[in-house]
Amino acid sequence: MKQTLLLSILLAATLTSCKKEKEAEVTKQKQKDYPGIEIATWLEGSWGNASSQGTLSEKWVKANDSVYYGESYFIVSNDTVFAEKVKLDEINGKLAYTVSVPGQNNEKPVRFEATTMTDNQLVFENPAHDYPNKITYNKVGTDSLVAEISGTKGGKPASELFKMKKQ
Question: Is the pTM of this model over 0.70?
Answer without folding.
Answer: yes
